[in-house]
Amino acid sequence: MTGLSTHVLDAVTGAPAVGMSVVLQDAAGTELASGVTNADGRIPEVNGEPLVAGIHHLVFDTGSWFADHSITAFYPEIDICFEVADPDRHYHVPVLLSPFAYSTYRGS
């Protein structure tokens, strides 16, 4: 399996962050793909093809998601910059989200 997936969890409620828009960009800021988190807070396949080696950005529209849920928050977006070293691998970028903090890690 190659490509990119993501998962967003609302760390305050423990529930999936359903309906969050996410954009994949290359290092120059060109949009490569986009999607919206599903009922499980996931986008199982952000892009349909293997990523090319290099720097990428996964940008989460947290501002709109918080506004849609009437939540005052500090981060209008989360831009996770990551490097693809092996295009033959699958990359998973999960996010734990709260109004005033977030964390991420390289998932499996």
Automatic annotation (TrEMBL):
EC number: 3.5.2.17
GO molecular function: hydroxyisourate hydrolase activity
Keywords, sorted A to Z: Hydrolase, Purine metabolism
PROSITE patterns: TRANSTHYRETIN_1
SUPFAM superfamilies with a match to the protein in the record: Transthyretin (synonym: prealbumin)
Sequence similarity: Belongs to the transthyretin family. 5-hydroxyisourate hydrolase subfamily.
Function: Catalyzes the hydrolysis of 5-hydroxyisourate (HIU) to 2-oxo-4-hydroxy-4-carboxy-5-ureidoimidazoline (OHCU).
Name by which UniProt lists this protein: 5-hydroxyisourate hydrolase
Organism: Gordonia sesuvii
Lineage, top ranks: Bacteria, Bacillati, Actinomycetota, Actinomycetes, Mycobacteriales
